[in-house]
Amino acid sequence: MLKEKYADRIAAIFAKYPDKRSAMMPLLYLAQEEYGYVTPEALGEIAALIGVDPTQVRSISGFYTMFREEPKGKYWLQVCTDLPCALRGAEQFYQELLAELDVEDGGTTADGMFTVERVMCLAACDRAPVLQNNFHYHENLDMDKMRALIRQWREEAGQPAPDAAADSADPDDSAAG
Amino acid sequence: MTENTVTLHIDGTPYQMPEGMNLVDAARIYAGIEIPIFCYHPKMEPVGMCRMCLVDIGFEARDRATGEPVLNPDGTPQVRWGRKLETGCTTRVTAGMHIRTKTQAVTKARKDILEFLLSSHPLDCPICDKGGECPLQDLTMRHGPGTSRMAFDEKKRLGKHLPLGDLIVLDCERCIQCARCIRFQAEVVGDDVLAFHERARSLQIISISDPPFDTYFGGNTADVCPVGALTTVDFRFGARPWEMENIPSISPHGPVGENIALGVRLDRDSGGVKRVKRVLPRQNEEVNEIWISDKTRFGHHFTLSPDRLQTPLLRKRGELVEASWSDAIKAAAKAVKEAGNRVGIIAGPMMTNEDLYMLRGLAGHVGSRKLGVWPPNLGDPDPVAEVGIAAGSRLTALGKGDAVLVIASDLEEEAPIWFLQAKQAADRGAHLVVANMRTTKLDRYAGHVIAYDFNEGVDVLNGLTAAAISHRWTNRSALERVNGYDELTAALKGTRQPYKEAAEAMAKARNLVVFVGDDGLDPEGHTALLRAAANFLIITGHAGQLNNGLVPVWPGANTQGAFDLGFSSENTRAMLKNPPEVLILAGAPAAADPAYAALLDRVETVISLTMFHNAAAGADAPTTAVVLPIQSFAERDGTFTSAMRRVQRFYTAHGPAGQSLPAWEAVGLIGERLGMPRPPRSSALVMQALTEEVRLYSEMTYPALARVAEQFPPIGASPDFYGGATRSAAGGTGIAWPSRAEGRGKLTVKAVRAPEGVKPGPGELVISPVRRLYDRTPEFYTATLMHGRIPEPFAAVNTADASRLGIANGDSVVVHVAGAAVHVTAVVDSYAPEGVVLLPLYLSSEPMPLVPLAGTVEKITEPVPAD
Questions:
Q1: A54 and B197 in contact by Cβ < 8 A?
Q2: B207·A63 Cβ contact <8 A
Q3: Cβ atoms within 10 A of the Cβ of B792, count?
Q4: What number is the average pLDDT over the span A101-129?
Q5: What is the fold of B313-378+565-701?
Q6: pLDDT of residue B147
Q7: What is the value of pTM for the model shown?
Q8: In chain A, what percentage of residues exceed pLDDT 70?
Q9: Chain A contact probe: residue of B197, B201, B215, B441 with most A CBs at under 10 A
Q10: CB-based contact, A159 to chain B, within 8 Å
Q11: What is residue B71's DSSP assignment?
């Protein structure tokens, strides 16, 4: 339960706002941090903390793309493919990223490491292709930079790439290797 | 809104209208010009979401240097038009404003908005319940494009047939995202259990409250929905709107007297007879505005339930067997004749004024004055006749500077529409004071919540009155017509005044309405509380004026009518001490209280007039000799008098169940056998006779009751005026009889004290009955669609009491009170006050007393399985 485990943080969040309801988004972040995504139970917990119906909490978590209501990978990669970013190659970059990680649009890799999805404007059009990894920005990307980042994150997580051929941009090669 | 009248030009024509009104209302009401809308609703704040009401807005130009109006060559003021169209619903009328509603830009905007809305609409009108009364359909015909440029395959596919709770079904594809339903729940009701999820084309309405869509008012969302996105489980696929006749009627549930229309149609599934397909609200701004509770909307199934008694029953050789009307009437008349003035009558909450008039005529004929009302726990209603809320008052008028007191009542459970109205009065700035021995939902909106101990409601009111007297918050001119003021002052000397702020807010309020219930009260306590409330109203000058006065939260649809015709709860109680020889139970479930169940055995003969032949109506009593099937409110016409003393007429919607008759006619037939004149041939003629005999009702003839007061805003007037299913007030808006305070005579205040009350012995608790909206009376339980919402029988026990008794939440317990044993589940929380067990009425089929009494609660221990 968030209430017991994070009593101090929750108190600090509430202290920032004149109205309890305003604390809904920080509490959703907290729940997402704790449970990996906004679980149905978390909606109830937050509703009880604020004193509103859980429906209102779900409405907020459903509106904003930075809250996920389904399980996600350890690294949550969000790529903007809106028009200005697409003009700088974001759409192609996104397709290549999906192929690199062998996931569907919006899907999670089989090892549970990466969830990849497209989002609307990240307010960094001039530095596209741009990607958010767990809300941290990586800008002016290409696949070389991206593969290096993926390797780095895998090492960070203590899960090195499944095989050396992962460096290849061609998924067929990787499957063959 | 200010009262300033200004000139607004619409399409070049000047109109006078109040400043500050929004353009949609102003154009419709003052100029008869339609600005089409979907999301705007006059009962909710405008939000400008649907963009359908776009108009061209301009202002008369003024020279910046001189401030003089700039004129055209022809001398007319020059208008500077805005560069873009603006939403009419969010723009308010100001002086010098011009609007255009017929320009090419406006016409094109309407067409484009409709094309946009329809681009992801399924256009399944032929199978849609809303088809035929759908604003989207109507406005598309009037303003929309004839064809679409969108390919059907590219339409967004979303969920269909999604249950939004037990009663409402959502079709996301039909939804045009106007948020009327969400806003209704949030703004009007305060149960914010609906919300949008996701965004843009994926937007959909959700409810994840527990249970989903947890509210008593959900059906209204289907009414205000301007498309077929929300449909009720009751009416879904039931009939087409144009096939139904809408019969004006009055809710038989509760004291509010909600104005409704019964949509009836010949129905193949019911064997080709006419039946109610749906219940819709009928606009009456002085009663229910345009809202009805889900109990009223869905609780109509009893009218043609197969469980209804179809024929008269007569006891032959110890058994109740089917009999002809003539035999049954003969037997009933014989019993009444033999008993003479030893006949007693107990009339139930759905008996109409016509029924009651004939019953009292019958009693009068045999010289009996034993006219009892059911339930038997009510006090003396005279304060209502003296200072009841003034005729013609409307709760919608209450706002800033006004006050509302609710005492000894859980309004949400007992009179849901008044809950809405009290809540909204508080939203508009009225000072709401809620005083109860337990928490209620209305507490959320209160400026002051007064939590008193069991039986201390009278002390609370006396304290408020004492504070008003000692601080001179009394009204000098009002005191000039008061008798007994000095005695009251003397009697209240030294009374504790713990709620001074609440007293000041109420006493100084411009208007004050006081709702008095009977929660936790015995008849003496109820009498005292009504009187104490009247005292406060009188000395603070809140009696006899519009939008002021006392509203009793009576239990039944026609409890007030019964009082008006000389029936009383006191007479009912007197029968326990002095049982009549023949007891006529007229729609009174008397055997639901063990004391009265015993009374049935102590009289010689029971004659039961009933819709349902069940234990509560005396089916199990060996003394029950004659049972007469009577008609429900839908099968006949008649009148109910609401607790605001408004006499309201309802009309025959469909044919009778079996051989049932209106109760007045059955009683008339008995009377005729006893030598009384032939009974009148119609209820209109019964009412005619009643008006001649009962002074309070002298104006209440059927033609007078059928008169329609103008409704503002005219939401029900035209189906596409504001896009909703609300029906017009046709059929009559009723007449309220004035309280004595509205006349010029003297008013009397009288000191009252809380009666002794229940004194539980050692090991005992107070067992206090509680009224819940959803119960298991046959008049409601026959609506099977509501079963999921009716709680299992329970008793609320305070945490401290429970731990003393070793009872945990969810335990099976038996409540012993007055010889009754009621088996329920314990709900342990702080809801019940310490020392008091709250036992909801009519949830269990086991008899239980209707007044608070001392009793015990005992845990039922599971038998230990032998191994």
A1: no
A2: no
A3: 9
A4: 93
A5: Rossmann fold (3.40.50)
A6: 83
A7: 0.94
A8: 90
A9: B197
A10: no
A11: B
Band the pLDDT of A174: cuts 50, 70, 90. very low
159-198 in chain B: CB under 8 A from chain A: 191-198
Cβ of A43 within 8 Å of Cβ of B198? The answer is no
Provide the mean pLDDT of chain B: 95
- Does domain B120-232 sit in CATH 3.30.70.20? yes
Note whether B198 contacts A56, CB cutoff 8 Å: no
Residue B37 has pLDDT above 50, yes or no: yes
Query: Do residues A74 and A112 make contact, with C-beta atoms less than 8 angstroms apart?
Result: yes
Assess A20–B contact: CB distance below 8 Å, yes or no.
no
CATH number listed for the domain at residues B765-859: 2.40.40.20
Q: Indicate if the pLDDT at residue B250 is higher than 60.
A: yes
For A128-154, the pLDDT digits (tens) are 999 999 989 999 999 999 999 999 999
Contact B197 A52 (CB under 8 A): no
CATH number listed for the domain at residues B382-552:
3.40.228.10
Q: Which of B196, B198, B209 sits opposite A53 (nearest CB)?
A: B209
Contacts of residues B146-155 at CB distance under 8 Å and 24 or more positions apart, as own/partner, are B148/B115, B148/B118, B148/B119, B149/B115, B150/B115, B150/B118, B150/B119, B155/B119, B155/B120, B155/B121, B155/B122
Pick the residue from chain B with its C-alpha nearest to A43.
Answer: B208
Q: Give residue A163's pLDDT.
A: 56
ipTM of the complex: 0.90
B158, B170, B182, B208: which to substitute to probe chain A, counting the most A Cβ within 10 Å?
A: B208
- Sheet containing strand A131-133, strands side by side: A114-119, A75-80, A131-133, A136-138
Q: Bigger pLDDT: B181 or A173? A: B181
pLDDT at A31 over 90: yes
Closest by Cβ to A56, choosing from B195, B198, B199: B195
